[in-house]
């Protein structure tokens, strides 16, 4: 076992995931949606909420490949969605399931996977793939209820992966919400958008956007209830007081910003910025405790440091006391969890889209309303970002390098 830590003293780790959830959908973190999210709010109020967390690709399979491997999508061989055009995640890759199992953890996966193949071959002893959230919640709860915390001698690493609010694709386009207005300004001219975004703009009346928002909010509330029941069952299982919880989403949704619906081949903040909350064990609940072992004086709060889903695998390993592979480009977020003044793990974050080939580098970016790519005063900043991006592509062996693309659009102002 790593670091000589007895299994009984090591914490359990629960990775809670949603699908296609924007960063600004949780009431406790300043939601711009009407959805009530009391259970996600409880996580934000009890833990450390990261306000500037980004995915590595605003589409399911590539981002989930990052979450499972700690690799960027091209490195993981999953630059696009499963079967569109990618093959299943290679079983030869070192996944977080394999790493945690090798370290003595019991590994479990319940819910949406979307990476193909057999979950068992990726290191998960208990593996139940499912895209029905209520069933996912029941399977996750059964996993804890089938264990006796009084005699359990192996800590667990468990992924509980919910599908929603992804299913808002089935909103009713004929429904109208009178008086609705989107919570952001869309006055930017369409011709100031990159061509790939212009082609996907939706010229819908505000009342139709209201239907979109209404259905998306309903699905947010539904998945929040699933999360709430999951947390309730975890509390009642006896494992809660010795379990770290990491909550995140694989990517966001445009929801009408820049007149764009859903997700797509662009790198706007709506689709690449995601919720991320880390909650340490809460000892006020009954269950197995070793006095002093996991005691902490962490205060709940928010963190503005720039981070990425590339950091989830190193963070999980750090919590478990496992040294990560030094070749991983992600960094543990525990130093930032412990100290609000700690340095950000990254000066830049990166994201990609497979077809058409798009790549993003981001340092700081406000509302993304003015394209400065052709502005003379921004030429030096543009050149610096291009250099950073090229270096990243070379370091990761990204296939985009081989395409020798013409980098035409850099929206960072």
Question: What key phrases describe this protein's structure?
Answer:
413 residues, alpha/beta, Alkaline Phosphatase, subunit A, 9-stranded mixed beta sheet, 28% helix, disordered N terminus
SSE blueprint and pairings:
Elements: E1 12-18, H1 38-46, E2 48-54, H2 60-69, E3 81-82, E4 85-86, H3 96-102, E5 106-111, E6 126-129, H4 133-145, E7 156-161, H5 195-198, H6 206-237, E8 243-249, H7 269-272, E9 273-279, E10 301-303, E11 307-308, H8 312-319, H9 334-338, E12 349-353, E13 358-362, H10 379-396, H11 400-403
The whole-angstrom Rg is 21 Å
Uncertain runs are 1-7, 289-295
Beta-strand proportion: 15-25%
- CATH third-tier fold name: Alkaline Phosphatase, subunit A
Counted beta strands: 13
Biggest sheet architecture? 9 strands, mixed
Structurally, the number of domains stands at: 1
Helix-strand string: EHEHEEHEEHEHHEHEEEHHEEHH
Secondary-structure-based class equals alpha/beta
For CATH, the homologous superfamily is named as Alkaline Phosphatase, subunit A
What is the name of the CATH architecture? 3-Layer(aba) Sandwich
What is the overall number of helices?
Answer: 11
Describe the global form. Answer: globular
Q: Indicate the percent of residues in helices.
A: 25-40%
CATH first level: which class?
Alpha Beta
């Amino acid at each position: 076992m790593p670091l000589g830590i007895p299994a009984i003293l090591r914490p359990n780790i629960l990775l809670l995931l949603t699908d296609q959830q924007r960063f600004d959908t949780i009431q406790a973190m300043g939601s711009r949606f009407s959805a009530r999210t009391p259970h996600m709010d409880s996580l934000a109020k009890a833990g450390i909420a990261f306000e500037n967390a980004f995915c590595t690709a605003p589409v399911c399979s590539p981002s989930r490949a990052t979450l499972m491997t700690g690799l960027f999508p091209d490195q993981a061989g999953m630059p696009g969605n499963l079967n569109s055009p990618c093959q299943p995640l290679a079983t030869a890759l070192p996944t977080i399931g394999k790493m945690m199992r090798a370290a003595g953890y019991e590994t479990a996966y319940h819910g949406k996977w979307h990476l193909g193949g057999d979950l068992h071959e990726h290191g998960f002893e208990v593996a139940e793939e499912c895209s029905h959230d209520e069933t996912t919640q029941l399977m996750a709860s059964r996993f804890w209820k089938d264990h006796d915390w009084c005699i359990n001698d192996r800590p667990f690493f468990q992924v509980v992966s919910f599908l929603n609010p992804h299913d808002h694709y089935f909103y009713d386009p004929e429904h109208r919400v009178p008086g609705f207005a989107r919570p952001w300004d869309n006055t930017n001219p369409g011709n100031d958008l990159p061509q790939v975004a212009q082609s996907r703009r939706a010229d819908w009346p505000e009342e139709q956007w209201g239907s979109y928002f209404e259905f998306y909010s309903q699905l947010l509330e539904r998945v929040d209830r699933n999360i709430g029941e999951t947390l309730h069952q975890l509390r009642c299982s006896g494992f809660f007081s010795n379990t770290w919880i990491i909550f995140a989403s694989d990517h966001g949704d445009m929801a009408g910003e820049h007149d764009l619906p859903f997700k797509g081949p662009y790198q706007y903040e709506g689709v690449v910025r995601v919720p991320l909350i880390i909650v340490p064990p809460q000892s006020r609940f009954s269950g197995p405790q070793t006095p002093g072992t996991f005691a902490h004086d962490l205060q709940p709060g928010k963190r503005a440091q720039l981070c990425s889903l590339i950091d989830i695998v190193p963070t999980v390993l750090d919590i478990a006391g496992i040294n990560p592979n030094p070749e991983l480009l992600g960094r543990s977020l525990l130093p930032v969890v412990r100290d609000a003044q700690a340095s950000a793990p990254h000066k830049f974050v990166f994201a990609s889209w497979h077809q058409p080939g798009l790549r993003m580098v981001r340092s700081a970016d406000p509302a993304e309303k003015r394209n400065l790519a052709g502005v003379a005063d921004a030429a030096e900043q543009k050149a610096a970002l291009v250099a950073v991006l090229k270096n990243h592509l070379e370091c990761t062996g990204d296939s985009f390098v081989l395409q020798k693309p013409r980098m035409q659009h850099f929206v960072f102002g």
